[in-house]
Request: fold
Amino acid sequence: MTPSVTGAGYDDAAQRRIPGYKSLARLAVSLVATFPSLAADAAPLLVVGCGTGAELSEARRQRPDWTLTAVDPSVGMVAEAKARLGAAAAAVTWIEGPAQSMPGEACFGAAIAVLVMQELADDGSKLDFLSALARLLQPGAPLVLVDLMRGGSGLNSAVEQQFNEALLRFQRSSDLPPPSVDEVPLHPIGEARRSALLAAAGFSDPIRFYQALGVDGVLVQKLQ
Ligand SMILES: C[S@@+](CC[C@H](N)C(=O)[O-])C[C@H]1O[C@@H](n2cnc3c(N)ncnc32)[C@H](O)[C@@H]1O
Reply:
């Protein structure tokens, strides 16, 4: 398991724990920028689980013309994100709460959820989360989803074991500080389960754009 840390210190811990973390926001924004649903004056981008604002600041940097909405239930994370964006924070719509509680239908042109679904239990919470994102997105709109996965990309169990060991080695060699009381338990799922949940929520088959050991990023689209 790879626990996450909330609030101050998050960015440093994420870089030490998540292989390739520094590229994830740039990759996610670059990917959704290829969709016409986010053209200037079109529907806003929804940054789900905005955390300390990595994807928001990258979106602002790449596409200052976009309208941004950020949702996150952590007051501490939202405060960090607002501080990171500085004056640009005033142009973002901030929602403090879980994405599942957002009202509306087909109001966003794209969504990014990096390292968020992994924090939800697979007891209906992951499906509720994905179903809410499908409801909020316009038909055809993209969702970029990145999570720590169990079982990698259809790996056999020996390779999976090696990947888990390599991830722990990667993290140990990053001189991680001792675990914090703020750490959030993770609930990784396998690839087949993710595909089933995405289909049940109303998304297309996932297309992988990123993998670093068990950290896996896919692009899906809200079905028409
Ligand atoms: C590991 S952090 C990732 C933050 C950011 N996306 C990044 O990659 O740096 C996960 C974030 O998701 C938020 N989160 C957890 N459950 C959520 C939900 N149901 N809806 C929206 N955000 C959620 C947490 O509060 C936390 O800020």
Q: What stands out?
A: Helices lie at 10-17, 21-32, 54-62, 75-85, 125-136, 157-172, 191-201. DSSP finds seven helices and seven strands in the chain. The first helix runs from residue 10 to 17. The pocket of S-adenosylmethionine is lined by residues 4, 14, 48-49, 51, 54-55, 71-74, 77, 98-100, 114-116, 119, 129 (CB under 6 Å).
